[in-house]
């Protein structure tokens, strides 16, 4: 019986793969600046909020412990991708290669930005999962919409509070940073609200298919207990 608790379902595995793809894609898309109306943002806004939606689904259906495994798996795969990109970027190009600048712009992530990204991702993702888990227990499984939105606000706020000062302090004027951080949180939360009807249907379908609806009562929230699932 104890051995079975260490197993994961096929659907959890597929969600984990999608989670990792979203994180890696966000790294690449972040290199392009996009305009949403009068607001300038990074292209990662297209896909990064999806990782929080997946986090919500996993935490709601399979519980915090599975979400913890998901977050660390995403971190490891993202780190692996960034490391490979950095290594390839550092290797001199062939004599006929003329696109060093373009390749470096996409894969030459500065150590400062990489560190800020990794720390912010871990803190924000775990905050999202923790709030989601605790609110589910407190509400006895009710008000999924409120839990999904509030956990996203918590996670995205912490992510932005860590990432932007660490990555852009001294690059972006100090007076602009708070506004930039606020827009990131607001737009990513709006993103979550817009797709919430789809998220709710996905969660209901997962619970029905998996026969699971985990409540994290009495568990250890230590983020380092990775394989305690």
Automatic annotation (TrEMBL):
Keywords: Cell membrane, Membrane, Transmembrane, Transmembrane helix, Transport. The chain crosses the membrane at residues 7-29, 35-54, 75-97, 109-132, 144-168, 180-200. GO terms for molecular function: transmembrane transporter activity. One of its GO terms (cellular component) is plasma membrane. HAMAP family: Q_prec_transport (MF_02088). PANTHER family: QUEUOSINE PRECURSOR TRANSPORTER-RELATED. Involved in the import of queuosine (Q) precursors, required for Q precursor salvage. This is Probable queuosine precursor transporter. It comes from Hoylesella oralis ATCC 33269. The lineage of its organism: Bacteria, Pseudomonadati, Bacteroidota, Bacteroidia, Bacteroidales.
């Amino acid at each position: 019986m104890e051995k079975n608790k260490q197993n994961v379902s096929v659907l959890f595995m597929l969600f984990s793969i999608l989670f990792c793809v979203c994180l890696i894609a966000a790294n690449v898309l972040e290199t392009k600046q996009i305009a949403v109306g009068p607001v300038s943002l990074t292209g990662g806004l297209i896909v990064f909020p999806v990782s929080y939606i997946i986090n919500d689904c996993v935490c709601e259906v399979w519980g915090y412990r599975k979400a913890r495994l998901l977050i660390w798996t995403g971190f490891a795969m993202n780190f692996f991708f960034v490391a490979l990109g950095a290594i390839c970027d550092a290797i001199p190009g062939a004599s006929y290669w003329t696109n060093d600048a373009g390749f470096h712009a996409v894969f030459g992530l500065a150590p400062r930005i990489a560190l800020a990204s990794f720390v912010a991702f871990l803190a924000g993702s775990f905050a999202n999962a923790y709030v989601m888990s605790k609110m589910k227990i407190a509400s006895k499984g009710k008000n999924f919409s409120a839990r999904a939105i509030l956990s996203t606000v918590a996670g995205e706020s912490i992510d932005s509070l860590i990432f932007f000062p660490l990555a852009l302090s001294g690059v972006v004027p100090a007076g602009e940073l708070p506004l930039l951080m606020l827009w990131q949180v607001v737009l990513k939360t709006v993103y979550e609200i817009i797709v919430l009807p789809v998220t709710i249907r996905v969660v209901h379908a997962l619970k029905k298919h998996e026969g699971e609806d985990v409540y994290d009562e009495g568990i250890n929230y230590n983020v380092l207990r990775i394989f305690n699932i």
